[in-house]
Amino acid sequence: MHTFAIEFILSVLLVIVLMNLFKKKPAPPARGPQPDLANLKPTDARTGDVISVAGAGDNMADLDFTADRTTTFEAGSRNWTELSGTYRERRVALRVAMEDELEVALHSDPRKLTIEDLGVSEDDLAQMDERQNTGDSFDFDNRTWLYRLSREARATRDDQRQPAGFYYWEFREHQGKGLLTVRKPEGEPFGVTLYTGIAAGDVTVYRR
């Protein structure tokens, strides 16, 4: 009797072992479409990629840099990304935004601009923010800059744990490709960044 019981238990254990051996492995989780590494677009770029912008460097050379950080911005319903790195000992950034269509812009101006350089004051910016009038403008660098928007914004860097908040103004060059932004973090001075709009086809992204 005892021998039969032991044989029965062993048979059950053997069946369990065999079932586990032949059990089908679960299928790997489905992955979304992967980018074509030979034809990466500006929207595919990420930290660690080498970015080359045709003819945008000094003396009309290509501007090449390795993106060492990526920052995602939110201003109301608008979102954009900046990939930043070093080019010839100065920091540059590629800005990628999807509005009605893809907008790509490059910051490579070596100047450290202030709102005083723009010829506007804190009060001027406050009034533009209150009016929210896209007809407002000012002249700087022999160009006219049209008010586009201003609102609270947030930036999230991939090398920092906490997002940073600031107030944001954006201006577009009248009949040109320039973009000028002003940021005011609480308790810090105004920061000015000047961009030049570029064609997405002028940007080549290399993944290491």
Brief description of this entry?
This protein has 208 residues and is an alpha+beta fold. The protein has helices spanning 2-22, 115-118, 122-131; strands at 50-53, 63-66, 69-75, 78-87, 90-98, 102-107, 137-140, 143-157, 164-173, 178-184, 191-198, 203-206. Strand 9 and strand 10 form a beta hairpin.
List the defining traits of the structure above.
single chain, 208 residues, alpha+beta, 8-stranded antiparallel barrel, 3 helices, 12 strands
Model description:
The chain is 17% helix and 42% strand. It has 208 residues and is of the alpha+beta class. It has one domain (37-206). Strand 8 (143-157) and strand 9 (164-173) form a beta hairpin. The longest helix is centred in the first third of the chain and has 21 residues, at 2-22. The mean pLDDT is 89.
Number of strands: 12
Reading the helices and strands in chain order gives: HEEEEEEHHEEEEEE
Integer-rounded radius of gyration: 27 Å
- Residue share in helices? 10-25%
Main structural class: alpha+beta
What value does the average pLDDT take? 89
Counting DSSP H or I runs of 4 or more residues, the number of helices is 3
Distance between the termini: 69 Å
Question: How many domains?
Answer: 1
Biggest β-sheet: strands ordered side by side in the sheet: 3-4-5-6-11-10-9-8
Oligomeric category: single chain
Low-confidence stretches: none
| Main sheet overview | 8 strands, antiparallel, barrel
Q: Rough shape?
A: globular
Strand composition percent: 35-45%
Helix/strand layout:
Blueprint: H1 2-22, E1 50-53, E2 63-66, E3 69-75, E4 78-87, E5 90-98, E6 102-107, H2 115-118, H3 122-131, E7 137-140, E8 143-157, E9 164-173, E10 178-184, E11 191-198, E12 203-206
